[in-house]
């Protein structure tokens, strides 16, 4: 192997790499090449062997080339490239998936030559172990630092690699770096600045040494025990490659100095465990630590168990035995919650209180002992932040491991773990995924909203998660907003009616159901006005509307945006999350102020006037958007009334800054005590002090037929029939159906954003049934051609399923790479199918799509929204197993120029009005103006008697009469009173609603 180009220059070598570092001992095996970069490995991807790039978005993958270099350390070429990464990006060498995996177990590590740029940046390097291939293997990672200039050989012993906890592509396999089935490596390049790199000569080096490949671990880092009990610490020896020990391993142990007192609180122990040569990998020994009982009430006390290991790697952490807190009033479940909170609060230090106000992301827990060190109050999983494998069992195991860490604190205050389960437990693979909120709003069915919340709560709690960052109570006023589908609709009265979901999640408004194994703490978000931001007002990256400014009068704020939160407080919602957006109230003199800084709204309106007694949780890193330095961010948001900060990766900085602000007198201790009291109250209400660990008794119901039936019904009821010329729908089983379109057979597009990952993804992402599969399972005579390239002759009807691909938040804003128009491929499919036969077009999307230019050629048009995993629900209404009953939760515009357009606007001439929705019921009412007069009289009577059921039924009859007459020739004169009527219905003014419908009837 030629390195002469480099070795010829002694001056160049000086200060870089002494020759002794590359020389090998006589008994050391020769290095085994992995990559020479001479062209023997192509730029290719799975299943072939090859080198390929990847990244978080289109700009993130680096560019690669094989460059001729006279100074190449190995051969004549090197791998060179450039990058400019904003998110994440790098490159991979995968071995061929069609060939056997490689065996690296005989070697000490992997090394390569790197041309340093002295950037000071850390560069992660990962290897791929076990599994089916390089993209379905376990990832093990370490890193090196580019703190040098010129060529340097980087050596990475396999013992330095750790199992990745922030991301794994597959289901975990065995969590052991076996090295016998290796599939390649990957390298992540630095983000945030342009750069280039060069790399050469990747190879395996050295001989596997037991002292390097054997390790000693303990069964847990923390071992709680009741006072007087005996803790049993299990000590395991294991080897990389799972071979028996070739040399003895000894573990000398002794109890050390913690907060417990030797002789009084426990009996000291010491000794030596011996694992002789030949001991099987995985062998376990046990150390017993007896504790002593006394009559004093005490906080928890710790006993470190110091381990000294010879012949193997020692555990990363010193295990601790913890004598549980006992006898203190806050531990007495029979006492009222207020007394328990007051007792515990009075015992806590300022640092412990600051910890309770801090929430970190699970991916930040590279040092899980920080949970105890900073007395953290909460952890969360952001979108896509999941354990490996992504199963209910793994979720529960992960969260229990985090909860265990809290037992090493003085008062053993449990964590409250949160997730964004916004349409089912959407981070969990195999969970029941409901329609997004916009579809639930289309159902107009409060009881169904309740049931979807109940299913979500049951599946979330069964994985050990007691807190859900849902529901979103935003009132979406502009469908260019990338979060439109998170809203139940554009009318605050509609949003209000769907808040039965809070009881589905939490149970009774008094919080007494929160201890149940099928209920979770709910979150009303985003307070307040996030659905009203003006297009073009966002200052966040490329966003156009999300996180922008909501400019309103005081009356508009009260009637539109605050109204849903009043209802949420009345329903006992446990937490509230402020919005990223800014609020600009006309005449208040404040201008646009970020919601996380608006004490007038959080302290004054929410907690004061509305009487909200839960706690306020910030949005992800939201305080970083406030003006000023970090200390200002902290004191401004806390003083404004935010009780817990979601600071995913800056939990240390926040906790420290908060303590400093209190000591400096800029945040009062009274404010801290208020915040912590609110947080502790919810933890006591959830029963976490008595049962901190996961209750998985309901796990068998996750994704069960009963739960999926609720989602199926929700999908069916959410379908809105906008046009149905000639009664094309429902389809008949005898008809030959031609199915086409990008969203007919794509479960990822069907479920949308916030599904497994934050942004969601197209393709076969989650278990479920696509719309195409639903049609086939319904017994339809179906032929499928995604792009409509198959011959179209001989069919009775076409079903073209078009729409959007997944997105979330501002990434999906119109103008940020998105529009409200169908893609060219979808337009072509509609044109071809609808020109050849009668056709129904289904729009699978998070918001209305502009289809007016093709409406004449479409016989039936359905707004399918994002129906979730149960495509059978869509098939149910297409084939008539259920009637179409859905109504538009938002106005469907004719053009983007009309936006924003909403019910109640003075000028109102949409394609389809708010509340529109044809039906395929067989019992459609008949009649005309006389019938409407009679319905108005009866509706007014129902209103006076507060007879909601009768009133709603009468208005529905009137609405169907108007739709029969107006279908196909909607005008502004029809649309405005029609939409107004639906708002009146939702506010209980049934008589006025029918009067408005009569006005629309006369105009039709």
UniProtKB/TrEMBL annotation:
Question: Is Metal-binding tagged as a keyword?
Answer: no
Domain Calx-beta, by residue range, is 203-308
Q: Which reaction does it catalyse?
A: Hydrolysis of terminal, non-reducing beta-D-glucosyl residues with release of beta-D-glucose
What is the E.C. number? 3.2.1.21
Tell me which PROSITE patterns the record gives. Answer: GLYCOSYL_HYDROL_F3 (PS00775)
Keyword Calcium in record: yes
Q: Could you say which residues form the signal peptide?
A: 1-25
Pfam families documented for this protein: Calx-beta, CBM_11, Glyco_hydro_3, Glyco_hydro_3_C
| Alphabetized InterPro entries for the sequence | CalX-like_sf, Calx_beta, CBM11, Cellulose_Degrad_GH3, Galactose-bd-like_sf, GH, Glyco_hydro_3_AS, Glyco_hydro_3_C
Report the top EC class in one word.
hydrolase
Q: Which Gene3D superfamilies match?
A: 2.60.40.2030, Galactose-binding lectin, Glycoside hydrolase family 3 C-terminal domain, Glycoside hydrolase, family 3, N-terminal domain
Q: Which UniProt keywords apply?
A: Calcium, Glycosidase, Hydrolase, Repeat, Signal
Q: Which PANTHER family does this UniProt record tie to the protein?
A: LYSOSOMAL BETA GLUCOSIDASE (PTHR30620:SF16), PERIPLASMIC BETA-GLUCOSIDASE-RELATED (PTHR30620)
Q: Would you identify the family this protein belongs to, as annotated?
A: Belongs to the glycosyl hydrolase 3 family.
Q: By what name is this protein known?
A: beta-glucosidase
Query: Origin organism of this chain?
Result: Streptomyces canarius
């Amino acid at each position: 192997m030629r390195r002469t180009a480099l070795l010829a220059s002694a001056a160049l070598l000086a200060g870089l790499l002494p020759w002794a570092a590359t020389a090998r001992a006589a008994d050391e095996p020769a290095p085994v090449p992995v990559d020479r970069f001479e062209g023997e490995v192509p730029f290719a991807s799975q299943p072939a062997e090859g080198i390929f790039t990847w990244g978080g978005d289109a700009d993130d993958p680096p560019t690669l080339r094989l460059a001729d270099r006279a100074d190449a350390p190995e051969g004549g070429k090197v791998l060179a490239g450039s990058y400019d990464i904003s998110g994440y990006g790098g490159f991979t060498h995968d071995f061929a998936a069609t060939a056997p995996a490689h065996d690296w177990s005989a070697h000490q590590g992997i090394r390569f030559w790197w041309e340093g740029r002295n950037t000071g940046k850390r560069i992660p390097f990962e290897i791929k172990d076990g599994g089916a291939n390089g993209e379905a293997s376990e990832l093990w990672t370490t890193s090196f630092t580019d703190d040098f200039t010129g060529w340097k050989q980087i050596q990475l012993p396999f013992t330095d690699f750790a199992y990745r906890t922030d991301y794994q592509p597959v289901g975990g396999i065995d969590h052991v770096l076996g090295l016998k089935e290796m599939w390649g490596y990957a390298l992540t390049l630095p983000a945030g600045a342009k750069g280039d790199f060069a790399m050469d000569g990747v190879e395996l080096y050295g001989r596997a040494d037991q002292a390097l490949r054997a390790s000693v671990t303990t069964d847990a880092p923390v071992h709680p025990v009741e006072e007087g009990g005996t803790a049993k610490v299990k000590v395991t020896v294991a080897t990389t490659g799972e071979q028996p020990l070739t040399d003895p391993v000894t573990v000398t142990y002794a109890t050390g100095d913690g907060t417990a007192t030797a002789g009084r609180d426990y009996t000291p122990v010491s000794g030596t465990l011996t694992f002789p040569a030949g001991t099987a990998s995985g062998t376990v020994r046990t150390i017993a630590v007896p504790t002593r009982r006394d009559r004093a009430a005490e906080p928890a006390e710790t006993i470190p168990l110091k381990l000294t290991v010879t012949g193997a790697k020692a555990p990363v952490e010193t295990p601790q035995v913890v004598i549980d807190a006992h006898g203190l009033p806050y531990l007495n479940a029979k006492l009222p919650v207020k007394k328990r909170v007051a007792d515990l609060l009075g015992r806590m230090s300022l640092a412990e209180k600051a910890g309770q106000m801090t929430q970190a992301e699970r991916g930040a827990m590279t040092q899980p002992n920080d949970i105890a060190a900073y007395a953290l109050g909460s952890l969360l999983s952001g979108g896509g932040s999941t354990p490996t494998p992504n199963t209910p069992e793994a979720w529960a195991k992960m969260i229990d491991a985090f909860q265990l860490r809290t037992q090493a604190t003085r008062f053993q205050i449990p964590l409250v773990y949160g997730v964004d389960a916004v349409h089912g437990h959407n981070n969990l693979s195999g969970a029941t995924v409901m329609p997004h909120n916009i579809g639930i709003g289309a159902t107009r069915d409060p009881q169904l909203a309740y049931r979807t919340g109940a299913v979500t709560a049951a599946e979330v709690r069964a994985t050990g998660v007691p807190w859900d960052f849902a529901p979103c109570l935003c009132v979406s006023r502009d469908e260019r907003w990338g979060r439109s589908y998170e809203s139940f609709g554009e009318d605050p009265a509609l949003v209000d009616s769907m808040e039965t979901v809070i009881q589905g999640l939490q149970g009774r408004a008094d919080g007494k159901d929160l201890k149940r194994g099928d209920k979770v703490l709910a979150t009303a978000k985003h307070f307040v006005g996030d659905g009203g931001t003006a297009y073009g007002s966002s200052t966040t990256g490329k966003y156009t509307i999300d996180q922008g400014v909501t400019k309103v009068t005081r009356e508009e704020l009260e009637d539109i945006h605050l109204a849903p939160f009043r209802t949420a407080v009345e329903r006992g919602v446990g937490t509230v999350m402020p919005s990223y957006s800014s609020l600009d109230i006309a005449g208040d003199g404040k201008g646009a102020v970020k919601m996380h800084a608006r004490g007038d709204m959080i302290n004054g309106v929410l907690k004061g006037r509305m009487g909200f007694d839960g706690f306020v949780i910030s949005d992800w890193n939201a305080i970083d958007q406030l003006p000023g330095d970090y200390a200002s961010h902290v004191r401004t948001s806390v003083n404004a009334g935010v009780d817990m900060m979601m600071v995913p990766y800056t939990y240390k900085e926040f906790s420290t800054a908060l303590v400093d602000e209190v000591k400096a007198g800029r945040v009062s201790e009274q404010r801290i005590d208020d915040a912590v009291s609110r947080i502790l109250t919810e933890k006591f209400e959830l029963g976490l002090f008595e049962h901190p660990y996961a209750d998985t008794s309901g796990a068998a119901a996750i994704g069960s037929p009963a739960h999926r039936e609720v989602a199926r019904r929700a999908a069916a009821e959410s379908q809105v029939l906008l046009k149905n010329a000639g009664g094309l729908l429902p389809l008949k089983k005898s008809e030959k159906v031609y199915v086409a379109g990008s969203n007919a057979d794509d479960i990822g597009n069907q479920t949308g954003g916030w599904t497994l990952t934050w942004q969601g993804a197209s393709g076969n992402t989650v278990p479920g049934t696509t719309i195409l599969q639903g049609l086939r399972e319904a017994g339809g005579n179906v032929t499928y051609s995604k792009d409509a390239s198959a011959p179209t002759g001989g069919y009775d009807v076409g079903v073209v399923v078009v729409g959007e691909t997944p997105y979330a938040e501002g990434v999906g804003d119109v103008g940020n790479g998105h529009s409200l128009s169908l893609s060219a491929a979808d337009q072509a499919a509609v044109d071809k199918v609808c020109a050849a036969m009668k056709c129904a077009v289904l729009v699978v999307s998070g918001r209305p799509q502009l289809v007016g230019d093709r409406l004449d050629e479409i016989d039936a048009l359905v707004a399918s929204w994002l129906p979730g995993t149960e495509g059978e629900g869509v098939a149910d209404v297409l084939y008539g197993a259920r009637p179409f009953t859905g109504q538009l939760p938002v106005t469907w515009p004719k053009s983007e120029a009309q936006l924003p357009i909403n019910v109640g606007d003075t000028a109102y001439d949409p394609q389809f009005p708010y509340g529109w929705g044809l039906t395929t019921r067989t019992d459609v009412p008949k009649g005309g103006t006389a019938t409407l007069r009679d319905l108005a009289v009866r509706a007014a009577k129902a209103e006076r008697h507060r007879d909601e059921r009768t009133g709603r039924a009468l208005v529905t009859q009137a609405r169907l009469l108007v739709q029969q007459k107006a279908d196909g020739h909607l005008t502004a004169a029809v649309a405005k009173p029609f939409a107004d009527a639906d708002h009146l219905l939702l506010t209980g003014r049934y008589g006025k609603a029918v009067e408005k419908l009569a006005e629309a009837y006369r105009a039709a």
